[in-house]
Amino acid sequence: MSKVLAWGVLSTANIGITKVIPAMQKSSLLQVAAIASRRLQAAREAADRHGIDKAYGSYEELLADPDIDIIYNPLPNHLHVPWTIKAMEAGKHVLCEKPIALNEADARQLVKVRDRTGKQVVEAFMVRHHPQWLRSREIARSGTLGDVRVMNAFFSYFLTDPANVRNRADIGGGGLYDVGCYAIASGRYIFEREPERVIGFIERDPQLGTDRLTSGIVDFGGGARLLFTCSTQLARYQQVDVCGTRGRLRMELPFNPDSASPAEILIVDEAGQRVERMPAVDHYQLQAEAFGHAVETYGPVEFPIEDAVANMRVIDAIFRSTVSQSWEVL
User: Fold this and answer.
1) CATH topology of domain 5-126
2) Which of 156, 183, 240, 260 can bridge 231 by disulfide, Cβ–Cβ 3.0-4.6 Å?
3) What pLDDT is stored for residue 1 in this prediction?
C-alpha cells in the first residue's frame, strides 16, 4: 500500500482494545486515527492508553470525520448490522466483527448497502489470514491426506458472568454466535464449498437463556463433513483435526494462537509423522492489512460479504435444527 489508511474504532470493546488495535499499530501501513465511545471519558482514556489522536463521545461523530477511511466495528452482535450500514452510508469501508449479523436476512442487507454505496465490508475472521490455516488448506488441496472427509473442531471457554455481552441472549450472546461460527467458517474454508445440510444439538443455560453447549454436524456432501462442539461453560480448549483417507493433520491452537510464538501443524500421512512450524505472526494485523490493501487498490476482497451471508445461513439452519430435531437442508 502506498497510502497509510486511517482507521476509526467504533467503541472501546475489549477485543478492539486488547487485540485488534495493538495489532494494527504494529503495521506501518495502517493508522488507528480515532476511537469512539458513548462516553467521551472512556474514549479519551482508551485513546491516551493507545496513543490515538482523536477521541469521540458518540459513534455519529466518528462516522462524520472526513479523515477516516475505514471503520472497525467490534460492537455487541445486535449492533453489527445497523452501525455497519450507518458507517457505509457515511462513506466508510467497514471491517466488522463476527458474527456479521444475527441471521441471514439481516446479513443480506449489507450486500445491498455495499452495492449502493460502493463501500467494502467484510467479516472479521482473522484465522483465515494465519499461515497455519493457509498451509492446512494447501495440504488438504495437495492430496497428501487423500480424500479429505472429516474436520473435527472444538472451541470452548468458561464464562458465567450474566453482565458479559457473551451471556446476554437478548443481544446475540451464546456459544454458537461467539465461537461456533469459527468452526463453521473454517469448515467451509477447508472443504472449499458450501454444505448441503446440517443438524445441531443445543443445551441452554436455564438462567441466561444462551446456548452454553452446542454440537453440530455440517454435511458438505460426498462423505465430507464437519463435526464441531462449542461451549461457553467448559474448560478453555481448542483444537482442529482434518482427516482424509490417507492421512490427517492437527492444529493445537487453531483459533487464537500466540502471536509471539510459532504455530505448529502435526501431519501424519503415508510418509510418517512430522511437525511443520509456521512463523509467529499477528493474524489481526494481517487481516487489517489485507482489507486495507483491497480498499486502497479497489481490488476484490478474498472473503466478500457474500461469504458472511453464507456462514449465517448455516448458523440459522443449526438453530432451526435444534427446534425441528432433524436435518435442515441448505
Assistant:
1) Rossmann fold (3.40.50)
2) 156
3) 47
